[in-house]
Structure formats: C-alpha cells, structure tokens
Amino acid sequence: MFKILELQPSPEQTSMAVKLIEQAIIDGYRESAKHCSTVASQSLGADSDIAHKISDEMRRENLLLIANLSSLQ
Length: 73
Description:
Elements: H1 2-5, H2 11-43, H3 48-71
C-alpha cells in the first residue's frame, strides 16, 4: 500500500503503529475474557466453585498471552 502511495513511514511511526495494534489486541482480549468470565459466573451461579475456577484459569491464560505478546516487541 505504501508503495502505491509512494510513502514510507518513519521508524518512529512504524513503532507507534505496532504499539497501537498490540494494545488494541490486548484490550480486545481483556474485554473478551472479562465477558466470558461474567457469562461463566452467571451460567454456573449454582456451582460458584466451578465458575471461580474457570474465571481464575481464564485470568491466568490472559496474563500469559499478554506476557507473550509483550515479549515479541
């Protein structure tokens, strides 16, 4: 696309774009995980122990994903 427009982003612009995209992915995943935890808690309300276990596991996976994405920089 940049070749068609005869434009080339600077290294700073490229870095900023990468950071913005990464943050958007992280934010989207966090929101999705939060929603899934809420749904699990509501659906398994009678068995709150299972709901808490599911929510805890989702949080752990979320933290691992974010750590992995951050290490790719």
